[in-house]
Amino acid sequence: MPETKIRKARQEDHSSLCRFIEIVDNEFCPPLSMRGNGIEKRVWECLTGKHSYYLIAEDHSGPYDILGTVIGVIGCNKFWRKENDAYINLMCVHPLQRKKGISRALCQELERELMNDGIKKLYVCTWSTNDAAMRFYGSNGFIPYCIMKNDRGNRVDTIHYRKTFQS
Ligand SMILES: CC(C)(COP(=O)(O)OP(=O)(O)OC[C@H]1O[C@@H](n2cnc3c(N)ncnc32)[C@H](O)[C@@H]1OP(=O)(O)O)[C@@H](O)C(=O)NCCC(=O)NCCS
């Protein structure tokens, strides 16, 4: 893993987070820019929400002067459907920094924080053509519990996962 620091994002990180998400936008199905009110609003709502936040991974050693230092992000909504659950609303890593354990580190840190807050279940979903994400969730303790056939297009299913924390 590169020299990476993980921290909670602040409102001042809004524009660098948006610029980072734009880099990976088209890898999402559908792209994040096509969902709801777009990336800027999505990020702002998560940064300012009472029960939502992002953890970001930053690399201060690389040549990221133009794009900023963000190389990965995970976002969550706490107390999502019940008071002891949470939902991962975003996870992505810079294309040049993948397969180095950055998502795993972000997810582990998120889980640590959520457990400290008394969260017992963590939910996430992905789509059936996203091999990297399916492998990631499968190898990090998430169990698929619902598949919505053709939800995102012809033969592109939505797969819902959940992870129950052991206390
Ligand atoms: C999915 C994604 C976030 C993974 O981030 P990452 O930092 O590269 O993941 P990690 O290095 O922490 O990988 C941890 C494990 O996930 C699995 N994994 C991650 N990327 C993989 C890939 N391309 N192919 C197969 N397995 C993969 C592996 O099991 C890996 O463990 P290993 O390296 O010991 O084999 C990244 O590929 C990404 O940003 N994709 C585009 C956005 C996206 O699809 N987000 C998820 C939406 S639900």
Poorly predicted ranges (pLDDT <50, ≥5 residues)? Answer: none
Find the structural class using helix and strand composition: alpha+beta
Bound molecules: coenzyme A
Number of helices: 4
| CATH-derived architecture of the domain at 4-119 | 3-Layer(aba) Sandwich
Q: What overall geometry do the principal axes of the alpha carbons give? A: globular
Instruction: From the alpha carbons, calculate the radius of gyration and give it in angstroms.
Output: 15 Å
Number of E-state strands: 7
The helix/strand series, from N terminus to C terminus, equals EHHEEEHEHEE
Which CATH first-tier class of the domain at 4-119 would you pick? Alpha Beta
Proportion of residues in extended strands = 25-35%
